[in-house]
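ok, trying the design again with the full structure, not the truncated one.
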């Protein structure tokens, strides 16, 4: 009398075990995906912060000493270096139509 009932009980137990296994695997996969998403967001934030720190540490600065040296070299060329026209003055163009100092 118990003999025909035994395969049904075994089948029910197997189905229950399989269902539990599928449920656990699904729950584990969701948890793993949430952890991965959180880790990716944390890594992106960390990378952005590192880039900002690097840019802050390596700001582009003007080369003041090179600009000062260039100005010193310009000063050593004489009084002609202070005029836009040079030391020879304004050249005369034919027919008197050339540029003149102070627009005269």
């Amino acid at each position: 009398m118990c003999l025909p009932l035994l395969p049904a009980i075994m089948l029910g137990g197997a189905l229950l075990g399989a269902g539990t296994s599928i449920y656990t695997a699904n729950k584990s996969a969701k948890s793993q995906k949430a952890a991965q998403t959180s880790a990716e967001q944390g890594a992106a934030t960390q990378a952005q912060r590192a880039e900002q720190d690097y840019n802050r540490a390596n700001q582009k600065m003007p080369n003041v000493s090179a600009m000062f040296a260039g100005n010193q070299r310009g000063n050593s060329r004489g009084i002609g270096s202070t005029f836009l026209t040079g030391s020879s003055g304004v050249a005369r163009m034919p027919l008197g139509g050339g540029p003149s100092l102070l627009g005269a």
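Keeping the full-length input from now on. The chain is about 60% helix and 0% strand.
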